[in-house]
Design a protein that fits this description.
Helices cover about 30% and strands about 20% of the residues. The chain is α/β, with parallel strands linked by helices and about 130 residues long. It has a single domain (about 5-125), classed as Hypothetical Protein Ychn, Chain: A (3-Layer(aba) Sandwich), CATH 3.40.1260.10. α3 (about 85-90) links the parallel β3 (about 80-85) and β4 (about 100-105). The protein is globular, with a radius of gyration of 14 Å.
């Protein structure tokens, strides 16, 4: 049985709030179930790791809870959020621009190695 869940948010577009709920909620649930959970935000979803972005987004119009609130919930449950390194250049960010819940910056080699070398790892992509 796998001990680690990697959630890759590559095709999840922050402009469509309804796309953001499932991966972040599943990260919360996985972490609450005591699995090691990493959420890797890459491509357009990398914007979620920038301070001020997720705070302005909601999964459902009229919801009092922001996407950032969901990220904080997942983080508090034990999920780690990681930003893909090309996002820094793509979205004019520096490490100082990242939300406190972002545990670090990783590149493509990290992801490929984790998936190819870790037999105890399962992947969900969004």
């Amino acid at each position: 049985m796998a001990d680690k869940l990697v959630i890759i948010m590559a095709n999840t577009d922050p402009r469509n709030g309804e796309e953001l709920g499932a991966p972040i909620f599943q990260a919360t649930v996985g972490a609450a179930m005591e699995y090691e959970v990493e959420v890797i935000c890459t491509a357009t979803s990398g914007q979620l790791m920038k301070k001020g972005v997720a705070e302005k987004l909601v999964v459902k119009e009229g919801s009092p809870k922001t996407v950032y609130d969901f990220i904080k919930d997942a983080h508090e449950a034990g999920a780690k959020f990681l930003c893909c390194s090309p996002n820094l250049d793509l979205f004019d960010m520096s490490e100082d621009d990242l939300i406190p819940e972002c545990s670090g910056i990783v590149g493509g080699a990290y992801l490929i190695e984790e998936l190819m070398e870790n037999d105890d790892c399962r992947v969900l992509t969004y």
